[in-house]
Design goal:
The structure is a single chain. The chain has a five-stranded mixed beta sheet. The chain has helices at about 20-25, 30-35, 50-65, 75-80, 105-110, 115-125, 140-155, 190-195, 225-235, 240-245, 275-280, 340-345, 365-380, 385-400, 410-420, 430-445, 445-465, 470-480; strands at about 40-45, 50, 90-95, 130-135, 175-180, 220-225, 245, 250, 255-260, 265-270, 295-300, 310, 315-320, 325-330, 355-360. With about 475 residues, it is an alpha/beta fold. About 40% of the residues lie in helices and about 15% in strands. Bound molecules: flavin mononucleotide (FMN) and iron/sulfur cluster.
Length: about 475
């Protein structure tokens, strides 16, 4: 039976573990930074000799680390895209916006172990020749910003930051920037615009790939809080050792936020792919199962923008059997390993690592209406399909959820949703607002149609009883 594997959150909830630097250092803090600054040169299997920052980049590549912010993109590959020949400064931004509904894991790191995040950041900056970095933190995390500023002050005082860090000759400073309080500020190019003091309008890619034209049009790395923490552990363990955690192509640990109708909502750190969705929901070590007397209806597996799974859904996956051979297997949704690749193969994603559980008491129309309202509110409005589509979907769902629906609303919703993603928008918000509608309506169509049909019938009965709206007024005006 899988258990929590606490690497990033190893000390976070231990009684007596505090946020200050002394406590962090007593628990081995900043040892990985010291190691990173003093790595001896190494010869790789292909005969290349690497040293210093390049060696750390190599370790991260070997570790197989994938970004924990949403897309699961290879961290080593992202770093390899950085334009190191432009002559411009290279920036690094820690994305602490944590705005995907259902996600509450970066907050735990910031509020409970801020120096770990700083250590990961400093190592990542050293590895990429960055001398100025930013933490872009969600505006609402007021206390989190204070905690980080305090931690930065402590780190500067002990020369873990600043000029000539620990006598290495390397200079770095990091500043906290509080976000503007919008979901789109978490999208990396919107974030960069916001950091530059403008509205968080995402930029068109190409040409504005952050690795080439990022902050102040300089090469920039944007990584999630949890991704940067993992960098510290990669240096501490070595890339190859880190890659042994988790499963093939889905390495390391991951903090999963579990919310909704479970007995033990909370955050749980696991080796990636070592626990299934069902285990994360039902095991006493994790979600602890559904509320008494309830049955599972649906699971949103990766934050509100991920496509929903319906209870009982089955998927065909290629899996390695005990004999080591790969074969196609049919598995229940609950038996999907919670990793990047299995969820993509099943048509959804693990996204920001947020599992939202919906039991049979859920009004599915209302649930989707709630999600759609969020996206309509948060669209930045630059692209017509996203700006108009998200609003139309939210309006239609509001009607359906409030007794004003129509039988054809289910098809109408899918038609709108199908016309938003697929390269028609500047950023992936287009996908994020369309996927919930496509999947909820696609998988629970009967509930949407029934709701619309019931509304139409009720309206028809009412019209029969009292006439068309306005008819009574016309009649009384004619009488007089
Ligand atoms: C609409 C939208 C919102 C996003 N919000 C966040 C966020 O709050 N935090 C985050 O780390 N990544 C967020 N992302 C992903 C970032 O654009 C970016 O891919 C990520 O920070 C890269 O870090 P990683 O490679 O370490 O995962 C968002 C993406 C989109 C399209
Ligand atoms: S897809 Fe939506 S959120 Fe993204 S840039 Fe276009 S309008 Fe803005």
């Amino acid at each position: 039976m899988p258990q929590e594997f606490r690497q990033i959150l190893k000390y976070a909830d231990q009684p007596g573990y505090r946020l200050d630097l002394d406590c962090y250092v007593r628990h081995g803090g900043y040892e990985a930074l010291k190691k990173a600054l003093n790595l001896p040169p190494r010869t790789l299997s292909d005969g290349r000799s690497v040293s210093g920052p390049e060696q750390i980049r190599e370790e991260v590549r070997i570790s197989g680390l994938r970004g924990r912010g949403g897309a699961g993109f290879s961290c080593g590959l992202k770093w390899s895209f950085v334009d190191r020949k432009s002559g411009k400064p290279i920036y690094l931004i820690c994305n602490a916006d944590e705005s995907e509904p259902g996600t509450f894991k970066d907050k735990q790191i910031i509020y409970k172990d801020p120096h770990q995040m700083l250590e990961g950041m400093i190592i990542a900056c050293y590895a990429n020749d960055v001398h100025l970095a930013y933490i872009y933190i969600r505006g609402e995390f007021v206390e989190g910003a204070k905690i980080l500023n305090r931690a930065l002050k402590e780190a500067r005082a002990k020369n873990f930051l600043g000029k000539n860090i620990l006598g290495s000759g390397y200079d770095l400073d990091i500043w906290v920037h509080r976000g503007a309080g919008a979901y789109i500020c978490g999208e990396e190019t919107g974030l960069i615009e916001s950091l530059e003091g403008k509205r968080a309008y995402p930029r068109i890619k190409p040409p504005y790939f952050p690795a080439v034209l990022g902050l102040y049009l300089c090469p920039t790395i944007v990584n999630n809080v949890e991704t940067l923490c993992a960098v510290k552990h990669i240096v501490a363990l070595g890339g190859a050792e880190y890659a042994k955690l988790g499963t093939s192509n889905n390495t390391g640990t991951r903090i999963v936020s579990i919310s909704g109708h479970v007995k033990r909502p909370g955050y749980y750190e696991v080796e990636v792919g070592k626990a299934t969705i069902g285990e994360l929901i039902n095991d006493p070590a994790f979600g602890g199962g559904l509320r008494d007397g309830r049955k599972l209806k649906a699971v949103i597996p990766g934050g509100s923008s991920a496509k929903v799974f319906k209870a009982g859904e089955r998927f065909k996956l290629r899996r390695r059997g005990p004999d080591g051979k790969e074969a196609e297997q049919e598995v229940d949704m609950l038996d999907l390993p919670y990793d990047f690749d299995s969820l993509i193969a099943a048509g959804s994603m693990s996204g920001s690592g947020a599992i939202i559980v919906l039991d049979d008491s859920t009004d599915i129309v209302e649930a989707l209406s709630n999600i759609a309202e969020f996206y309509a509110h948060e669209s930045c409005g630059q692209c017509t399909p996203c700006r108009e589509g998200s609003l139309w979907m939210a309006k239609a769902l509001h009607r359906l959820a409030h007794g004003e629906g129509r039988k054809q609303d289910a098809d109408y919703l899918v038609k709108i949703a199908d016309n938003i993603p697929g390269g028609r928008t500047i950023c992936a918000f287009g996908e994020a607002c369309a996927w919930p509608v496509q999947s909820f309506v696609g998988k629970f169509k009967d509930e949407f149609v029934a709701r619309g049909a019931a509304d139409e019938e009720r309206k028809a009965r009412l019209t029969e009883a009292i006439g068309e709206p306005g008819q009574a007024l016309v009649a009384s005006a004619t009488d007089s």
